[in-house]
Specification:
By secondary structure, the chain is an alpha+beta fold. It has one domain: Roll (Nuclear Transport Factor 2, Chain: A), CATH 3.10.450.590. Helices cover 38% and strands 25% of the residues. It is built from five helices and five strands; from the N terminus they run αβααααββββ. It has a five-stranded antiparallel sheet. A hairpin with a 2-residue loop joins β3 and β4. It is globular.
């Protein structure tokens, strides 16, 4: 008879295997190949929830609002936050299929657990850790200086907790 630990380990390995197959298919990061001369790569503000993109809302709040739209099925609202490149790369119909696939595999969205912020190559990155019925994921949103989403990834949550 298998122990709870062995079963949990097998389940975790199975989830990782699925993620290694599924995530590359659903991950999109657009605009990182654009010229960013003079940018400071690797700047971080991991604990800083008041870093701002644009004039009024913090990166943290913009990211939380965007993910809530996604979780509520408001795909058009989420896509309206995209820059022109992302709108072409990930139209509403494709995003809807990706989200339905994620929810189908992981269960219903339950809540936002937290947000980690960093900056890279002149962009603000928000890693929004989300809890689903059968797991957690980081939704990585990359924001340009106009508060538009210029990149979007779905990843397993950071093991380091940064």
């Amino acid at each position: 008879m298998k122990t709870h630990r062995e079963t949990s380990k097998r389940l975790a390995l199975g989830v990782v295997a699925v993620l290694l197959i599924v995530i590359p298919g659903i991950c999109l990061l657009v605009a990182c190949n654009q010229d960013r001369s003079g940018s400071q790569e690797g700047q971080t503000s991991a604990g800083n929830s008041t870093a701002t993109v644009g004039n009024t809302e913090s990166v943290d709040q913009v990211a939380r609002n965007a993910v809530q739209e996604l979780a509520k099925g408001k795909m058009a609202d989420f896509v309206s936050r995209f820059d022109s490149t992302m709108k072409s790369a990930l139209p509403e119909e494709k995003l809807s299929l990706i989200w339905k696939d994620l929810v189908g595999k992981s269960g219903a969205f339950q809540k936002i657990v937290g947000v980690r912020l960093t900056q890279a190559q002149g962009f603000d990155l928000a890693f929004v850790t989300c809890k689903f019925e059968r797991g957690a994921y980081d939704l990585q949103l990359t924001f340009d200086k106009k508060k538009q989403i210029s990149g979007f990834f779905i990843r397993p949550p950071s093991a380091s907790g940064e």
